[in-house]
Each structure stands twice: as structure tokens, then as C-alpha cells.
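Box S1 | Example of a co-folding query
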Amino acid sequence: MKTDQDTFLYALSSNNAWAGYKAHQNPDFFPKLASGQSPPILWLGCSDSRCPETTILGLQPGDVFVHRNIANIISPTDINTSAVIEYAVVHLKVKHVVLCGHTACGGAAASLADTRVGGVLDTWLTPLKAVRAANQEALDAIRDSQARIARIAELNVEAGVKVLMANWTIQEAVRERGLEVHGVLFDIATGRIRDLGFGTKPGGGAGAAGEEVRGRHAQLVFRGSNASMAAK
Amino acid sequence: MALLKTRIVAPSLMLQTSFRALRRPNLSHALLSLSRTISSTSPAAHPRSPHTLVDWRTMAPQDISKYLRQTHDKVFEHNKAWAAEKCSKDPEFFAHLSAGQNPEYLWIGCSDSRIPAEQITGLEAGDVFVHRNIANLVCNTDLNAMSVITYAVEHLKVKHIVVCGHYGCGGVKAAMTPKDMGILNPWLRNIRDVYRLHEKELDAIADEETRYNRLVELNVMEQCRNVIKSASVQKSYAENKFPIVHGWVFGFHDGLLKDLNLDFEKVLADIQKIYNLTES
Ligand SMILES: [Zn+2]
Ligand SMILES: [Zn+2]
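Box S1 (continued) | Returned holo structure for zinc ion
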């Protein structure tokens, strides 16, 4: 048994170990970080603790600019997400925007239930409720509840990508410098990311040679219906 | 704003720590598995207690190597023993991650690519619920961040909420630039408000970088206050004595987190004079 205080101090003490390890392994690591960021990827994902984006992608600090919210909902008038998109696309000039949903998503499950979640959450989940209403029959036809949650998570990504593609800042960057938008799903049980084929390359890039998102230490590869990670 | 030196010591609340090591075959390159192994250690596995942190920067190179080898050897041993024990007790342990999450932390941090919450804290998949936005802001009318706080506190019952800023924050600098930044204006305005609250203190700092760094700290403290103003935090604390809110700042130069030592109970009491949302 550990006290509450131990739990809290754990994060601080392991940060110390991490910093020592990183600096020892590569003395330039922190000086380089301090000099600025030019991440190739903007990640829009769920706040869920099981989806640590940089770890999932096998990437390193400096590689992924991140926004995570409840159920990775992209709402057109949400100032929080809009500010992130504007900063990442216009000021940092990221090359890829990745919207990632995931299996076993609590937000997705809540949107399939017929009870109030409470507080501000019901208002936040409204876009997901609309996705549910638009696909009610198809969703009802899925007997397995986890499969139904995974399916609405996919539909949610599809809806979110549509909102992203309608964003003026993104449209301009797609036209002027070939910014790419991807919609993917993370399967928590297997740790794999699947390209759902929405966005700037509809159809999941099937037949294409494959798209690589390069980080400093690894790369995310979009190929066919799959996205995978490869270490450099 | 008083930065009290006393670290809050929580009531004798006993919690289960959950240092889960998630093994994913496609993430098994050496670096990750090494950092993962570090992260799956318990505090006891570190050679010194967190209060007497080893300063590797003042060590001779051969001492650093020795220190790291020792810590890593220890960590490997602990991890091996721990993983074997978990598996022998429950072969399904690692599969359970897909069944649900039970994080003890909510992390509210900056979107900045250089601060992946899990990696810098050594926390595992499943340990920390994460919200990241431009300049780690918590605004009363932002349903996005407020939904995250509500869900984390009321549904996941997190024990700690960490607002983590960082020195050299581009969002904070952008906010103080005299320029029309379009859709960024309404968001970044909150940082100018923080400056106005602490105008005298900040204006008195001659060096620009020092002044920005102080603004980063003050911004973190202000966002902690905003977290504490929420109904879910106030109600949960009255009932359960958690969550506790912490303000941290990450420094790129050394990769270390600095605890601003927010006196949670005092700040909560101050805030509830005006912002009390509990019925007590
Ligand atoms: Zn989720
Ligand atoms: Zn920042």
C-alpha cells in the first residue's frame, strides 16, 4: 500500500530519472528541445488515459503537437480546438493533422446510453448524439456492445474529419502547401492504429505507395488500410 | 500570489498505486522499452528518496554512468520481478487495459510537442487522463476543458489534477505580442488577464525572459484556481478529500518538472469565499 502522497511524488521522482537518462543518452537532447519546436504532426485525440499519443506513435518529445478532449470531438465553434488548429497549422506549419478515435471509448459509450451524463458533459457530447441519431438503424443492428461503441467511434472520426475539412485554415493549408488530414482509429486491445480513409486521401490511400510521417526517432506509415509505426 | 513553501500533505488517504506496464509488440524498440522500464518502477526503486534528488548535472561523467547503470539495473530487476508476479497472479493483467481505465491523475498541459505528459512523468498508458490545449488554460466558459474536468473528477474519480505549464511557452509569448491573431484572440486573451492581475510584480522584472518565465508560473497558478472554482472539484473534495490540485512547470533546459507548491486547502478556502458551489 502506498499513500496518496507517494503516488503524487512518484511522477516527480520518475521525471527526474527520465531527465537524467535522456541527458545522459544524448547530451544535446534538452538544449535542442529548448531551441524550439517544429512538429510534423498535429494529433487530435481522446483524453482517455490509454491513448498516450507520443508513445503509441513511437515518437519523441518534439514530434507531436497535441490536443486531447472527451471523445475526440471536433466541434466547429469550439474555441479551444480552433485555437490549437490555428496555432499548429498557421504558426507551426504541421504537415499532418491526425484525428484519432479509439475502441472502448467512454464518451462514445455515453452517447449510446439513454441517460444524462451530468454537468456540462451532455452539451459537449451533443455532436456525438447527433452522429448516433443519424446512424441509429445501423448502430442498432450491431449486437455486440463493444463493436457498437467501436463503430460509433469510427463514425465520430468521420464526422470530425468533415468538420476539419470545412475549417478555413485547414482548407487553405491543404490547397497551398499540401497539408494532409487523416482519420484513424486506435485499437486499445492490440495497440494498433487503423487508417479509416477519411480526409485528404479518401479510401485509406489504397493502392498508394504509402505515406510516411517522420518523427525524429520513428515514423508513422500510412499504407493501404493500415497505419503502422516503424523505428528509425 | 503567495507561493507557500509547504507541500500539501494529503489526509491519511490510502490509495492503490497502479504502475501498469503495457507491453505492445510494435513499440518494442530499445529506447522505448528502456524508458518504459524506468517508468514502471515504484518510488522505492529509486536509489534516493524524491526529497534528496540526485543531481546528475554536477556529477563526473563516470559517476553518471555508474549511477544510471545502478538505477537501471535496479529498475530492470524490479520490473522483471513485478511483471512475473503480476502474470503469475493474473495472466490476463495486460489484457485488462482494454476493459477500462482507472487513472489517478488528470493532466492539463500545453499542446506543445515537447511535453508528452506520459513520457516526462514516466507514467504508463492507463495512468493519466490528459487534456492539452494552447498554454494550458482552464476557462470557465470553455466546455471542452470543463467537460474533461467533470469527467475526470466525477466519473473517473482522479486523485490528483496537475496543471503543467512550461518555460518558453509560445502561446504565452504570442499572447503578449501586440498583434491581431484572429481566432487565437479570444483564447489568448486569458493570458493577458493573468498579466493584468499581476501587473506590478511582472512590470518590476527587467529581464524579458525572466518576466515571461514568471508569467508562465503565474498563469499555471491562475489556471489551478480556475480548476478549483469548478463545481465538480469542490463537491468531490468536500465529500472525498480528493482531488488535490497541483501546479507544475516543465523546463526544457534540464527536462525537469518544478512543483510550484500550491497550498491546495488554503487556495480552496480563499476561493470558496466567493466561488463556493457546494451546499455546505
Ligand atoms: Zn475516449
Ligand atoms: Zn506552451
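The pocket of zinc ion (ligand 1) is lined by residues A 46, 48, 71, 102, 105-107 (CB under 6 Å). Chain A has ten helices and nine strands.
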